[in-house]
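Before any further analysis, backbone shapes were mapped to integers, which produced the following:

***
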Amino acid sequence: MRWLPRASIAERLKVGRGLRKRVPRKSHGRWKASANRPDPIKLLVEPDAGRILALLPIRYGRMQQSPFAFMRGAAAVMAYDLSHTPRIGVRVQACGDCHIMNFGAFASPERNLIFDINDFDETLPAPWEWDVKRLSASIEVAGRTAGTGSGSRESAVRAAVRSYREHLAEYAAMPSLEVWYQKIDFQDLVDRVPTPGNRKRDRKAAEEAQRRTVPDAVLPLTSGENTKIKDHPPLIYHLPSQRTAEYRRHAASSFRRYRDSLSMPYADLFDRFELLDVALKVVGIGSVATFCEVALFRDEQAAPLFLQIKEARASVLEPYAGRSKSATHGQRVVSGQLLMQAASDIFLGWMVGLQPRRDFYVRQLRDMKIAMPVDPKDPEDLAYFADACGWALALAHARAGDPAMIAGYLGSSDAFDDALVEFAKGYADQTESDYDALLKAIKSGRIKVEH
């Protein structure tokens, strides 16, 4: 609760416009690596401390596939670089890993499909510019990787930044509660997909997601008392220790702590389920080799519930934006997600594991989740998806920051859009250079890979 009146929207817009004198919008277009920039491979491997060593070759094998795959796994490298770029001093709850593939559709608690950001491992209060710049650069890199022409890549970057700017201006004029109630309906997005073939593709993806709430790869192998999660090594597998009674006691204790992080109605709902099995699971690119498990529960009707228990480590933004105020990194991820997402999983919570201590957050495993089937080779498809990503990011920042200050700074012209197009090109060049450094490190044996 605020005890002092907040400045009016008009006043905050004016302050935002005034910030252009100190940080011109065109200054965001310049990208030049700092003179003392560390070796990018050193920045890349520093966060590996504490990861599962046996899985690191899978992580780097995935990053080896393309410059875009490298970028997805190199959030720590870009975090360092972003800390050396201009900013106006306005912070939001930032995603921290805001690349184009971290947006998609998933089920709201009301079982409607909505479109939003879907990865918050790196979330932290930080400059708003960092998310927008990572998004714009990722669009350029994804387009280059797919062989999309330069004009189409520029159009897609512009679509994302313009969408962010224009939607943020809309949210700045709304009452706070109205902003909080806003959602991006996935079906509405699909209905406006410009190409009939892509529209049909996306409708099919939505229908399949609504029919299937968990992937086939983790469906129970058997039924009854011996119900277990399928093993698909090296991506899903059981450790010998996970079959022991001691491990089950430890897991049950951890889930009691997780239950305490849920709001009361959902904690009561969770009490209806019993734990059957737990297995290790390899996820993503940047998250590979962090500790991640999938747990199988069932209720009295033998209906399954799959939860993903994912390690939460320090955000890559922390060295440059400051430490989180949350008690644990699991709580940091959950709090940031609840603040930024228009709707979140009812089972989203956190816990602390012991022996050794690890922070975790917990959520349902792929609850009607859709990784958008965007075709970066299709100029219209890429631009349309980029527009949707910019819209979702604007909504997240409006919920978690001061949209009027940012909107005042951005204004109604294309000045910031122009700058971000140039930044995206420059940083894409940097990403390709860093990717070449990774390939050299692999060839020399400095980095081990496994496909």
About this structure: DSSP finds 17 helices and eleven strands in the chain. The chain has a mean pLDDT of 89. The radius of gyration is 22 Å. Residues 9-211+374-444 form one domain.
